[in-house]
């Protein structure tokens, strides 16, 4: 077993510019090494030996030997955003790279774009040196997803398009996004293109040449019967497969789905000349789906179809949370199937290993009938996307990208924000412990947290909690780990079994917020005022909660002891108390001492019945709910005074009138 991380000083990832991952970013090469590729915004740093062009997203590929040791890396891009979506080794030992590009002529790009994103393919030799590049597109967005070298040494390109007849696109849009494929010769010169779609959105994610020299196209469709689509939607989005001949003429199409959203991301040829489809499903038992979705979210869903598109069986794989970002599906040496994606689930359903408190790559291996043989969760920081293959030794290799350090299955630190990560393992390996744990990570000063141990294969534990009380533990699930002071704190767990030990150190895992601002209570008449500025307030009388008393002030109707609990933006509480309050006959707030008309007010209001001696100046101040003064002016008291509040936003305010000796307060509503 081995694993390696590849990255620079910034973000290096394997998913496309769209919110779904790319499909072909890992492949075993003819020399038994591996090629992995995606996008990069890193400078020359770490494993990256070439800078990005204009600090934008570029294609980035890394070649390794059979042991995962890096041999070389290459960066390709122009002045704008270029993101690799698929790559394949070619018959001459080089590589064909394909993705989506916003760049015009610049950097490695020798042709301008037609409209928005275009398809951009780059041919390199066995050492990664560029041989030629081509741009294909129309007047709108064309999103690339899939490429394969064809039997005549040309290439078939696939994705979806919003473009009409323009640029390289020779057929009009059916409506929304359509499947768009384009055939080239061995030098990348276009030979023909075809569009397939219905009246709504249809998104192609995978294209393969078939044994008869034609092509099979797989993706998603929202369209009903219209255009090239001959079957109605089951509900929401369905898998949609289109079979065409060697020159792009449609032979048949099939949709597969249930009553909700079903997203097809990958198709593979099987040894019997048929097809296996893989993706995610949100549907219950309905339509073509014979198994329910669990956990109220997405599951993996695979479908076996024959050479004419007739469904033979389907299988659903699940945990109690979300399984999404399905990467790819392939057939294994024993005739079974291998696929992976991203899971948020703990041990549940088909999932036998819990996550490391974040989304993790989840791999499933089935037999030839689609029943699960085993599953594996790749444990580290958050893992995005997943691509799986069985190599020519019969072992398994996976690639994703993540932000994790040395922990779980990962033995190398992260070099930037996110890095490529590839890992190889074989059946029968006896593994040391694989560590994972979780806890409430954000605390207020003086509070405690409990740790849930998610480690597998361990028999003993040693925890270290620097800065906490207690600061060590040998419990499986430590409780009441308390932090007195604000700051960030590391947590380390060393787990051991008969085969060895593993250590997981998560730096700054616990955050203890700063202590909230001190509180106090002042009294004016019967009105008690807490210090303004907290997020929320709750008043108590003689230790009993006062229902509805949640403002920064409270009119005390009775004599006694009062306290207020104030909560800041982090949810941390501080308390203040005032004892032996005497309830006066005259209250400072809301006792009818003066009236506001109209109230609610739009524009201007009038103060009526103001009970101050005539001739003395008074200060009129308006406060918002945080106690911040938003308007203040000096007036000579009259029986009626007009105040303009047209500049204030809608909401609740408090109007205070003060002559230097007394003050009166009333509530004001601005509409």
Q: Can you walk through the features of this model?
A:
The protein is mainly β. 0% of the residues lie in helices and 48% in strands. It has no helices and 52 strands. The strands form 14 sheets. Strands 2, 3, 4, 5 and 6 form a five-stranded antiparallel β-sheet that branches. It starts with a strand and ends with a strand. Residues 16-22 and 585-592 have low confidence and may be disordered.
What attributes characterize this protein structure?
single chain, 5-stranded antiparallel sheet, 52 strands, 0% helix, 5-stranded mixed sheet, 671 residues
Report a brief summary of the structure.
Helices cover 0% and strands 48% of the residues. It is mostly beta strands.
Described by strand count, sense and barrel closure, the largest sheet is: 5 strands, antiparallel
The helix count comes to: 0
**Low-pLDDT residue intervals, each spanning 5 or more residues:** 16-22, 585-592
**Assembly classification:** single chain
Number of strands: 52
Shape: globular
What is the share of helical residues?
Answer: under 10%
The chain-level mean pLDDT equals 88
Strand fraction: over 45%
């Amino acid at each position: 077993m081995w694993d390696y991380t590849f990255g620079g000083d910034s973000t290096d990832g394997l998913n496309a510019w769209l919110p779904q991952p790319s499909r072909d970013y890992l492949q075993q090469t003819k020399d038994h090494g591996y090629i992995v590729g995606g996008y990069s915004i890193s400078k020359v740093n770490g494993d990256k030996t070439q800078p990005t062009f204009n600090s934008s997203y570029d294609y980035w590929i890394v070649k390794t030997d059979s042991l995962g040791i890096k041999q070389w890396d290459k960066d390709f891009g122009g002045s704008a955003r270029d993101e690799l979506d698929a790559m394949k080794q070619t018959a001459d030992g080089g590589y064909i790279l394909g993705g989506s590009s916003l760049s015009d002529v610049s950097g490695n790009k020798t042709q301008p774009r037609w409209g928005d994103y275009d398809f951009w393919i780059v041919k390199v030799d066995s050492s990664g040196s560029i041989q030629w590049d081509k741009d294909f597109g129309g007047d709108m967005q064309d999103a690339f997803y899939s490429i394969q070298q064809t039997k005549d040494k040309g290439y078939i390109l696939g994705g979806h398009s919003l473009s009409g007849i323009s640029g390289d696109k020779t057929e009009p849009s059916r409506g929304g996004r359509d499947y768009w494929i384009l055939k080239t010769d061995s030098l990348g010169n276009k030979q023909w293109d075809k569009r397939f779609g219905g009246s709504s959105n249809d998104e192609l994610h995978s294209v393969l040449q078939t044994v008869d020299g034609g092509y099979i196209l797989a993706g998603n469709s929202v369209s009903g019967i219209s255009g090239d689509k001959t079957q109605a939607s089951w509900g929401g989005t369905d898998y949609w497969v289109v079979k065409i001949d060697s020159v792009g003429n449609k032979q048949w199409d099939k949709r597969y789905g249930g009553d909700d959203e079903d997203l097809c991301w990958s198709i593979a040829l099987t040894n019997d000349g048929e097809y296996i489809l893989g993706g995610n499903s949100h549907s219950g038992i309905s339509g073509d789906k014979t198994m329910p979705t669990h956990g109220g979210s997405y599951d993996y869903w695979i479908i076996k179809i024959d050479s004419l598109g007739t469904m033979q069986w389907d299988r659903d794989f699940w945990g109690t949370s979300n399984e999404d970002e399905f990467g790819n599906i392939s057939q294994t040496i024993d005739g079974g199937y291998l696929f992976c994606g991203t899971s948020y689930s703990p041990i549940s359903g088909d999932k036998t290993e819990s996550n490391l408190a974040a989304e993790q790559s989840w791999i499933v291996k089935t037999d030839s009938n689609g029943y699960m043989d085993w599953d594996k969760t790749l444990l580290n920081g958050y893992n995005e996307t997943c691509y799986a293959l069985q190599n020519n030794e019969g072992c398994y290799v996976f690639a994703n990208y993540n932000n994790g350090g040395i922990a779980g299955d990962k033995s190398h630190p992260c070099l930037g924000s996110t890095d490529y990560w590839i890992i190889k393992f074989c059946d029968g390996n006896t593994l040391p412990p694989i560590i994972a744990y979780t806890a409430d990570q954000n605390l207020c000063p003086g509070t405690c947290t409990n740790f849930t141990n998610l480690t597998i294969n361990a028999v003993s534990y040693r925890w270290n909690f620097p800065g906490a009380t207690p600061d060590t533990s040998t419990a499986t699930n430590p409780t009441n780990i308390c932090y007195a002071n604000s700051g960030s704190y590391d947590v380390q767990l060393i787990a051991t079994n008969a085969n060895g030990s593993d250590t997981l150190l998560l730096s700054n895992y616990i955050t203890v917020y700063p202590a909230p601002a001190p509180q106090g209570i002042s009294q004016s008449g019967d009105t008690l005022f807490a210090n303004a500025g907290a997020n929320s307030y709750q008043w108590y009388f003689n230790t009993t909660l006062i229902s509805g008393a949640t403002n920064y002030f409270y009119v005390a109707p009775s004599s006694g002891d009062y306290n207020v609990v104030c909560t800041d933006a982090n949810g941390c509480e501080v308390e203040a108390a005032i004892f032996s309050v005497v309830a006066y006959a005259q209250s400072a707030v809301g006792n009818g001492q003066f009236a506001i008309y109209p109230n609610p007010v739009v524009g201007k209001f009038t103060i009526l019945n103001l009970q101050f001696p005539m001739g003395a100046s008074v200060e009129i101040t308006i406060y918002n709910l945080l106690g911040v003064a938003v308007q203040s002016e000096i007036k000579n008291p009259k029986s009626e005074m007009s105040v303009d509040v047209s500049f204030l936003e809608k909401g609740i305010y408090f109007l205070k009138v003060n002559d230097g000796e007394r003050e009166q307060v009333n509530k004001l509503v601005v509409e």
